Each structure stands twice: as C-alpha cells, then as structure tokens.
C-alpha cells in the first residue's frame, strides 16, 4: 500500500472512530480506495436507494461493464417493486421511466414485462 493510501486509510479510521460516518463514506467514494461493504449492506437493508446509488457511483459507473449494469439494474428494480408493493403506481411509473428505461437497450422484453406489472392490482 502506498503512503497516500495508508494515510487515507488512517483518516478513514479516525473519521469512523470520531463518529463522522458521512464524511468517511464521502472520502471512500472520492478516493475509491476503500469500499465499505457493511455500509453498502446497511443502505440496501434500509432501502436508502439514492444514497446507495450515489455511494456505488463513486466506485463504478452504470455503463462501465456488465456487472455494474447488473447491480444498478437490481437496485432500481427493487425500488420499482417496493413502489408497486406499496401500491404507489405513480411513483412506480416514474421509476420505470426515469430509472429503468435506460436498461431497455439491453433487455427490452424484460422492461415490457416490468411495465405490465403496473396493470395488475397485486403483482405477487
């Protein structure tokens, strides 16, 4: 590990110990040196989709490779399914158009199937 990386790791450790969690996650994202999987899991479990995508975007871009595309798709799909489960069809529709439409170039049929879920009273 280079001196700079060691220094950043020590700063991250200090920030966490002092309770500056947001600052530590911002530094992780900015430097791309340390990915905090526990933080990532916490965001998933709490449904913090915006922060989750923001954090992940510090390490990979949606179109960087097929794995990045897959994880971003799964995050956005979960957001969509939660809106459907809450019977919030306007929000689900917005998510479909705003966040999921970009994936139609990779699997148009899947997006059509997801759009069809909007027509159901209970998609389960």
UniProtKB/TrEMBL annotation:
InterPro entries: CTLH_C (IPR006595), LisH (IPR006594), Topless_fam (IPR027728), TPR1-like_2nd (IPR054080). The keyword Translocase does not apply. Keywords: Repeat, WD repeat. Residues 33-91 form the CTLH domain. One of its GO terms (biological process) is regulation of DNA-templated transcription. It comes from the Eukaryota. PROSITE patterns: CTLH, LISH. Pfam families: TPR1-like_2nd (PF21889). This is CTLH domain-containing protein. It comes from Dillenia turbinata.
């Amino acid at each position: 590990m280079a001196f700079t990386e060691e220094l950043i790791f020590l700063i991250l450790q200090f920030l966490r110990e002092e309770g500056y969690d947001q600052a530590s996650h911002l530094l992780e994202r900015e430097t791309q040196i340390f990915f905090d999987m526990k933080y990532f899991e916490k965001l998933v479990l709490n449904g913090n989709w915006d922060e989750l995508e923001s954090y992940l975007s510090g390490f990979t871009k949606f179109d960087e490779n097929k794995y990045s595309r897959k994880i971003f798709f799964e995050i956005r799909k979960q957001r969509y399914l939660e809106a459907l489960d809450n019977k919030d069809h306007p929000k689900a529709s917005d998510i479909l158009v705003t966040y999921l439409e970009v994936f139609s170039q990779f699997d148009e049929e899947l997006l059509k199937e997801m759009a069809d879920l909007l027509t159901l009273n209970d998609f389960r």
